Amino acid sequence: MHDLLVIGGGAAGFYGAIHAARRKPGMRIAILEQNKDFLSKVRISGGGRCNLTHRPMDPGLLSGHYPRGSRELIGPFHTHASQEVMAFFESLGIPLKTEEDGRVFPRSNQSESIIMGLMGETTRLGIELHPSCRVTGLGLADTDGNWEITSSCGDFRSRRLLVTAGSSRSIWNLLENLGHRIVPPTPSLFTFRIRDPRIQGLQGISAPGRIEVLEPGGSDAPVAQANFKKAHRKGELTAEGPVLITHWGLSGPAVLRLSAWGSRLFAALGYKARVRVNWLPDYHKGAIPAFLEQVRQADGARRVGRSRAIPLPGRLWARLVEAAGIPPDRRWAELSRAGMQQLAAQLCECTFSVDGKSTFKEEFVTAGGVSRKEVDFRTFESRKQPGLFLAGEVLDVDAITGGFNFQNAWTGAYLAAQAIAGSLPEVQESSR
To answer: Most exposed residue of 225, 262, 349, 432, measured as fewest CB within 10 angstroms of its CB?
Structure first.
């Protein structure tokens, strides 16, 4: 008999097991992971550097980075947030650094530092690790509230159960059999696939911008129309920040933020939409012609395509000038009023057609999972099944990039661990 079985050997699973063992020494704890390697998502996070959290901030501000779960996480973040997570990893002997944008990494710039720290602590605490162990069934074993788990590596019994299996459809199915409602998953944190001559061949170029999703048209998308109006009212369909041109279209912080907040809208649209980019987020279309008129009077002899009037990358500026129908040898003095209007439109209302999505690096995140209404966010215990705790991406909680998804995992696992250890008044002799 185990005191605690953890299903899922990722960030939340290890964090929860470690904190439960620290809170109540002597507990018999095991982590079951269906893959042969533990902490695989930690290994690839942040391009292999592991962006483990974000700089400490007010819980209300921190929770604002979660398209789903922002309201529920405010309370948990008052108890365990970035500052506590950083202190934990530093207690394992892992020096950390905070970059200018607020992302926190190990000073080594190697995710292996985080993995070795977590693995070492589980060894020190005597936590059992079972790799290549696929859970096939779970349910209550007796009237005392003990759990029975069947798996590819044998059967287990446990007094408490912590599920941290991420977006595993097989685990979601088992939880659904226990009475939980699973919110259908949709991809989050994806980039826009766009084929457009204005950006073709410009991969690697980044520029500040404001990007917004335009209202879907057509009577064949009533769900999308309803989702759009709701998201538009909440201000979730506009994002500002760097826009990165890639081989397949547009990415960067602004696009990823839109993909997170608009996850379900884009799914309803079949990942086909129109977006509008303002490459001059400090200006609007109506103010640009007057500015361009000043440029024409000051630099009349210079060629429009070769003299950037604004601080945009040169090749992008040249493409936008061309898209405005302005010949490459046209001089500013020769630019007509209509030409300036067309150039202003390209600069401030540059519309693109999105015809699909691409995964953001290897960091696939989903919106969806166990309904938030069915979890007590003070303890992360199931409201359907006492003794069952859930943390991380198995829940319908997700965030934008910057270490926030890991922070959700750490926080939920910590609070679950405290509740689990506190609910076991004594460690059974049979489980030691």
So the answer is: 432
Number of domains in the chain: 2
The whole-number pLDDT of residue 366 equals 87
| Residue 293, domain extent | 190-359
The CA angle 388-122-76, to the nearest 5 degrees, is 45
Is the predicted pLDDT of residue 275 greater than 50, yes or no?
yes
Residues 122, 83 within the same domain: yes
pLDDT in tens, 51-83: 999 999 999 999 999 999 999 999 999 999 999
Question: What is the value of pTM for the model shown?
Answer: 0.90
Output the domain CATH number for residue 33: 3.50.50.60
Q: Which residue type sits at 221?
A: A
Q: Which residues contact 229 (CB under 8 A, 6 or more apart)?
A: none
Task: Identify which of 368, 370, 378 has the alpha carbon closest to the alpha carbon of residue 398.
Answer: 368
Give CA 268 to chain center in angstroms.
Answer: 19
Could you tell me the sign of the dihedral formed by the alpha carbons of 163, 167, 168, 172, in that order?
positive
